[in-house]
Design a protein that fits this description.
- This protein is of the alpha+beta class.
- It has two domains: about 1-75, Glutaredoxin (3-Layer(aba) Sandwich); about 85-190, Glutathione S-transferase Yfyf (Class Pi), Chain A, domain 2, CATH 1.20.1050.10.
- Helix content is about 50%, strand content about 5%.
- The chain has seven helices and four strands; from the N terminus they run βαβαββααααα.
- Helix 1 (about 10-20) packs parallel to helix 3 and helix 4 packs parallel to helix 6.
- The protein is globular and about 45 Å long.
């Protein structure tokens, strides 16, 4: 299988991390979003939405959206709960990641890291801070009670939220006041097979 992505993107890193934890062989195809790679006709045939990551299977079928991809890759593994309620909780956290976490933390990081904090986006960057901290507050509340977001077992919920949380400082978010999140980050980084973001 081929994975089209940018190793500095948290959404793409989720997939690299799942592949590493589950020892899934794949070919990584580097994409440069700033150079317009995702808007080529060849890529748009794989994902008309023009976004990475994209998983392309050997038979030519493609799958986009990072959480859909990691859930597909993790089928049958310990990263996907078998209990239906816990599985729904995992998906709840993945929706939280996409709607309450990523739009603030990942966007602030993109403005600062990828774009170099252009003057015209500084107000937007500042406006992202409160929403990002609100998401971190919610995570801290859960992780103060359970070692992983869905309980006692690591799941794809943790992978989804780890991707941008562990680099949140690159978007201006200070994690010093979140001891439970810091301990969770350390637990995940100590998981056998873990790899760092490139």
């Amino acid at each position: 299988m081929k994975i089209y992505g940018d190793s500095q993107s948290g959404n793409c890193y989720k997939i690299q991390l799942v592949c590493a934890l589950l020892n899934i062989p794949h070919q990584w195809v580097r994409m440069d979003i700033l150079a317009g790679d995702t808007h080529s006709q060849a890529f748009l045939r794989k994902n008309p939405n023009g976004k990475i990551p994209v998983l392309e299977l050997d038979d030519g079928r493609t799958l986009s959206e990072s959480n859909a991809i990691i859930n597909y890759l993790a089928a049958g593994s310990n990263l996907l709960p078998t209990d239906t309620f816990t599985l729904a909780k995992m998906q709840q956290w993945q929706c939280f990641e996409q709607y309450s976490h990523e739009p603030y933390i990942a966007v602030a990081r993109f403005i600062a890291k990828y774009q170099g904090m252009p003057a015209e986006r500084q107000d937007e960057y500042s406006a992202k801070q409160s929403g990002g901290y609100r998401a971190l507050d919610i995570m801290e509340q859960q992780l103060a009670v359970t070692p992983w977001l869905c309980g006692d077992q690591i799941t794809n919920a943790d992978i989804s939220l780890y991707a941008y949380t562990h680099v949140a400082h690159e978007g201006g978010f200070e994690l010093d006041r979140y001891p439970a999140i810091q301990a969770w980050l350390q637990r995940l980084a100590a998981t056998p097979g873990w790899i760092a973001m490139a």
